[in-house]
Design a protein that fits this description.
heterodimer, A: alpha/beta, FAD/NAD(P)-binding domain, eight-stranded mixed sheet, B: mainly alpha, FAD/NAD-bd_sf (chain A)
Chain lengths: 555, 309
């Protein structure tokens, strides 16, 4: 039995009967008390909320300020938020809400619909093990199929009624006297919960590069994560700025329709072949009829990716091998030696995200495509001026420049104990305990929190571990009627010292600039280890590491 | 002390960018080129443009070798800026009717050999070699030639373009000398050993064989244009003067080699140097076309006189 399955049994299987019973008892015992308190609080909270809002927001003046309550408030209805909802429900916690700022679920996969959008991790691994899909059409599915899977999760688990759309969270603050989080939305609603789960996603805010004259351009401007499907590219002069994970997927597609396509590159990335194929029908049928075969597939993929850690995370002979394979890929696809030089990375493989593509290099060599490696001086009315003095004129500029990944801040103010504000504390780089909890911010659980990123394996494998860890925490709060469950500062510090020591020896910290690091080179995003190590760490919820204050007593 | 703050320099470089579109290439004044000047100027401009282009390739190689990210970025910008100079010079040639249609002018044979060498070996050369040769090329060929040009050509557009080019070049030189000094800081013994080892590298010997006659060829071209070669020499001496201002700079063995070589170049009485080198220049002219490198690297084709693309 593999590690992964073992752990799935420990943490992800629906709660057995005994557990369910306990949860039921907890529900009946804890809820009335909480409700009583809530009723008492409601009027004062309402007054407070009204006062606070009238000074803060004018747009929401006309709205009512009803405080809505739930045991758990989940921010975001993407992969993380929906996964959290499913795991909570499976653990017997049904009193939760999901606040979604858009009108649809899906997060990153709802937003990224550019031509060619797909996942770099095989679908059988880039899906929840507790919600398997035997019908994936390809080894690497496109964004529409992944979004379909996410929407299917909502249906299958009956989550539709739990999701509140157009609820853009603007503020979250913890009331330590009540042990309640108060969450405000731009729409003027106020939510209260005993626990909050941050599932807003790290790749949710489109990032534009810091280029002079960005707004001077008079033609069409597009961001890869905000695609305009009505815009017709055929015959147009198009620029793609950026050569990261989105760009290598967009470029081959745009090259087919655009009249002229110029790709602006600052730093070439390591590109390796993408072993993609359509899954034959018999195979899908097999996965459906014999779930064991699907599980075996997932296991095989999981362990293949685990071995990649040796090449990607640490500098080892496998790193050299991976670099050599990538260079062979480049040499076999690009004939011109100057272009090969332009496309050869000068940093260690793994330091930045490794890209998978079979058609990016060929696309760059098409007659209608140009690779431009001159630095961009500025954007002008009609196009992009490069430092070789030439103005490249375009009808449309596509920004494939990724996302503002929060490494040193929070998407909205989060206030914890004694008025401390998380954004300020994280200004030098985000720090958490096991990527989920942050000292001073009780009853708050992060998904994709600090140092939770894999460089070699499926983010959803890490996500499952975080979800189950959060469930363990939330159940403690509800089962034991805790006002405060707060990780100890010293424990968090020790954890981070250890993390940073290990990170210093990884390829991510080997000298290149990437979105993994802050401006000062602090790594607040990646987990320095195997997925199996991460999951082992997350499987244990050590009560001694947390300060607990019951609702009725003192610390 | 030529020590400069590289971060500030990078910011300065970024904020000083200009484009061909900033200059009106059709402005009046093109007729100020005399009929007598025209043929010599055409040959001269072609050489100048190619030297800028070759210098650009040198910076591209240096960007790969740069010891830190700031210097790497600076060199990446300088690479583009040298290309911009070549583009601007080609635009001037276009303005003066010196281009055959849209064709790039042919580089002379010495330049062809240098291009070939740069394409094949420059990425393998240590930063010390390129970091010393490039300032010399910049001063002697680029900087000096530009000054001569402005002395003889009255076209205001030419002056406008070269005011910008010289402005860029002053930053290139500032960084060049800074790096020369930086490299002089290491242990002299190790430096000397490394230098000897590098000199023994046959790839470098090939490079020297291309660089040395190029200097003499350019001297001949300058003289052909009716300019005083003394001015070229004065510029070359500037390399020795500025590079040798500080002890660190003087400790750089490559500075020593290049500046000593410069002294030999400017001393016309040194027959032991000039006789064989001049012979090399003449011999290059006799290399049959079929033996010249036939394959033109793609980067050579990147020049354009058009402000927009």
């Amino acid at each position: 039995m593999s590690n992964e399955n073992q752990q799935n049994q420990d943490t992800t299987a629906p709660a057995p009967a005994a557990k369910k019973k306990k949860v039921a008892t907890r529900k009946t015992a804890a809820r009335p008390a909480a409700k009583k308190a809530a009723v008492k609080r409601k009027t004062t909270a309402r007054k407070k909320a009204t006062a606070a809002k009238s000074s803060r927001r004018s747009t929401a003046q006309s709205k009512r300020n009803v405080v809505k309550e739930a045991s758990v408030v989940i921010v975001g209805a993407g992969f993380a938020g929906l996964g959290m909802a499913i795991r909570l429900r499976q653990a017997g916690v049904d009193d939760f809400v999901l606040l979604e700022r858009a009108e649809k679920v899906g997060g990153t996969w709802r937003d990224n619909t550019y031509p060619g959008a797909a996942c770099d991790i095989p679908s059988h691994l880039y899906s929840y093990s507790f919600a398997p899909n035997p019908h994936w059409s390809r080894h690497f599915s496109g964004s529409d199929e992944i979004l379909g899977y996410i929407e299917h999760l909502v249906k299958q688990y009956g989550l539709r009624d739990k999701i509140h759309f157009q609820q853009d969270v603007t503020d979250a603050r913890f009331d330590e006297t009540k042990g309640q989080w108060r969450v405000d939305t731009r729409q003027g609603d106020v939510w209260q919960g005993r626990a909050v789960v941050m599932a807003q996603g790290p790749l949710s805010n489109a990032s534009f590069p810091d280029i002079e004259g960005l707004s001077d351009f008079k033609g069409k401007r597009l961001h890869s994560a905000r695609w305009d499907h009505d815009y017709d590219f055929s015959g147009k002069r198009v620029a793609v700025i950026g050569t990261g994970a989105s760009a290598v997927q967009i470029v081959p597609e745009l090259a087919k329709t655009a009249g002229i396509l110029k790709v602006f590159q600052r730093t070439p990335a390591w590109v390796i072949p993408r072993p993609d194929y359509a899954t034959p029908d018999w195979n899908k049928a097999l996965f459906e009829k014999l779930p064991l075969t699907r599980k075996a597939m997932r296991q095989a993929l999981y362990w293949t990716h685990e071995t990649m850690a040796l090449a990607v995370i640490w500098n080892s002979p496998l790193t050299r091998l991976a670099e050599r394979l990538s260079l062979i890929h480049l040499r076999s696809q690009v004939k011109d030696d100057w272009m090969r030089r332009q496309l050869t990375p000068d940093f260690r493989i793994g330091c930045k995200r490794v890209l998978l593509s079979n058609d990016y290099y060929p696309a760059l060599q098409r007659d209608n495509v140009d690779l431009i490696t001159w630095p961009i001086a500025r954007i002008a009315e009609n196009g992009v001026r490069t430092c070789d003095g030439i103005e490249h004129q375009f009808d449309c500029i596509v920004f494939a420049t990724g996302f503002d990944v929060p490494k040193s801040g929070t998407p909205f103010p989060i206030r914890g104990l004694n008025g401390r504000e998380l954004g300020e504390e994280w200004s030098g780089g985000a720090r958490a305990y096991k990527s989920v909890s942050v000292a001073g911010y009780p009853n708050l659980f992060f998904t994709f929190g600090p140092n939770s990123g894999p460089g070699h394996n499926s983010a959803l494998v890490y996500m499952e571990a975080q979800l189950d860890y959060a469930v363990a925490g939330i159940r403690r709060i509800l089962d034991h009627d805790l006002k405060i469950l707060d990780v100890r500062e010293s424990v968090q510090q020790r954890h981070n010292r250890h993390l940073q020591k290990r990170l210093a020896r990884t390829n991510w910290n080997s000298g290149c600039k990437s979105w993994y690091l802050t401006e000062d080179g602090y790594n607040a995003t990646m987990y320095p280890g195997f997925a199996s190590q991460y999951r082992r760490q997350m499987a244990r919820f050590v009560d001694q590491h947390y300060r607990r204050v019951p609702q009725t007593g003192n610390a | 002390m030529a020590n400069i703050d590289l971060d500030k320099m990078l910011a300065k470089v970024k904020s000083s960018q200009w484009a061909l579109a900033d200059i009106d290439w059709d402005a009046p004044g093109a007729d100020l080129i005399t009929a007598e000047q025209w043929p010599k100027l055409k040959a001269f401009m072609a050489d100048l443009m190619w030297i800028e282009h070759v210098g650009a390739r040198g910076f591209a190689a240096m960007a790969k070798k740069a010891p830190d990210d700031t210097l790497k970025q600076i060199y990446t910008y300088f690479h583009a800026e040298e290309q911009r100079h070549a583009n601007a010079e080609m635009a001037l040639m276009k303005r003066w009717g010196m281009l055959d249609g849209d064709e790039l002018p042919e580089p002379n044979k010495n330049l062809k050999l240098v291009i070939q060498w740069l394409d094949k070996y420059s990425d393998d050369m240590p930063l010390e070699v390129l970091g010393s040769v490039i300032p010399m090329l910049e001063i002697a060929l680029d900087g000096a030639l530009c000054t001569f040009l402005l002395d003889t050509v009255d076209d205001p557009v030419c002056h406008q373009a070269f005011a910008r080019i010289n402005d860029d070049e002053s930053r290139h030189l500032g960084v060049g000398f800074h790096v020369l000094e930086m490299q002089g800081r290491g242990d002299l013994y190790i430096k000397a050993l490394k230098t000897v080892a590098t000199v023994l590298d046959p790839r470098l010997i090939l490079g020297i064989a291309s660089y040395v006659p190029l200097l003499n060829r350019m001297r001949d071209n300058v003289v052909a244009m009716g300019l005083s070669e003394e001015k070229l020499y004065a510029c070359m001496k500037k390399f020795e003067r500025i590079g040798g201002r500080t002890a660190q700079g003087r400790r750089n063995p490559w500075y020593q080699i290049i500046s000593r070589h410069g002294r030999m170049v400017v001393n016309r009485d040194n027959r032991t140097y000039h006789a064989p080198v001049d012979l090399m220049v003449r011999l290059t002219d006799y290399i049959p076309e079929r033996l010249m490198p036939s394959r033109v690297p793609t980067w050579v084709k990147g020049i354009s006189y058009r402000p927009t693309a």
